[in-house]
Amino acid sequence: MAYEAESTDIIRNFNTIEIKKPADEIIAQIRKLISEGILAPGDKLPSERDMAARLGVGRGHLREAIKKLEFYGILKTLPQSGTVVASLGVKALEGLIANILDLDKEDYRALMETRVILEINAARLAAERATGQDIAELQQSYQEMTLLAEQGQSNMEEDHLFHLKVAECSKNAVLRSLIGLITPDVITMSSEQNTCRDGRNHNALAEHGKVLAAIVERNPDKAEAAMAYHMEMSRKQFDTR
């Protein structure tokens, strides 16, 4: 028994080893270059081929890192110009990248709590402010999500694109940016937790339909209630995991 107690005491001194993904390693290197002033706001990144060769990784990992940095507004890919560093201050860029690397450690519930606040308000504002063109695009987004569901395919990304479109309809640039900021991590964690199991995919589709109908009707109260219900059902699906 004494041996077992001593062994337990020793094991507590070990720390879990975190295996970093190649994309995160690439993001960390870009952060270092920005911190050292080697990469400045407005600077163009080397070609994808050259970067992948220099880093010793496949282009898929490089594209994942760049896509993530684009999601957060740190990099921008411009037509015929390549990928450039966003025109933000160095400290702001460093802070954003630090948040990206830390977000993977956040739990899904904390992410959902934040998402609920943002999404409910976005739906309400969308019902008040969406233009005819906005509504047409939102309907198209819903149709694409529906088609995939009917074909038995995953529509997780289309699901979140629908939410991003609702945020765009709110005409609140800050709200839209915040929802865009957490969307990549919502997609990742939803996939990891398999939140579309047990027929949830079809139920969620119906919930999205109610949000859409309320926005088309231009009824802020119904839009808010429909989104609140959708968020609650999504949370419950995770809690039963």
Key traits:
single chain; 241 residues; mainly alpha; Arc Repressor Mutant, subunit A; Four Helix Bundle (Hemerythrin (Met), subunit A); 2 domains; two-stranded antiparallel ribbon; 11 helices; globular
Question: Which series of helices and strands comes N to C?
Answer: HHHHEEHHHHHHH
The major β-sheet equals: 2 strands, antiparallel
Shape: globular
Strand proportion, as a percent range, falls in: under 5%
Structural class: mainly alpha
Distance between the termini: 36 Å
Radius of gyration: 21 Å
CATH superfamily (homologous) name of the largest domain = GntR ligand-binding domain-like
Overall mean pLDDT = 80
Number of domains: 2
User: What is the tally of helical segments?
Assistant: 11
- Weakly predicted, low-confidence segments: none
Annotated CATH topology of the largest domain: Four Helix Bundle (Hemerythrin (Met), subunit A)
Please give a structural write-up.
This protein is mainly α. It has two domains: 22-102, Arc Repressor Mutant, subunit A (Orthogonal Bundle), CATH 1.10.10; 107-239, GntR ligand-binding domain-like (Four Helix Bundle (Hemerythrin (Met), subunit A), Up-down Bundle). 72% of the residues lie in helices and 3% in strands. It is built from eleven helices and two strands. It has helices at residues 2-11, 22-35, 48-55, 59-71, 90-103, 108-129, 132-150, 156-169, 173-193, 200-217, 220-239; strands at residues 75-78, 82-85. The protein has a two-stranded antiparallel ribbon. α7 (132-150) runs antiparallel to α10 (200-217). The protein is globular and about 55 Å long. The chain starts with a helix and ends with a helix. The mean pLDDT is 80.
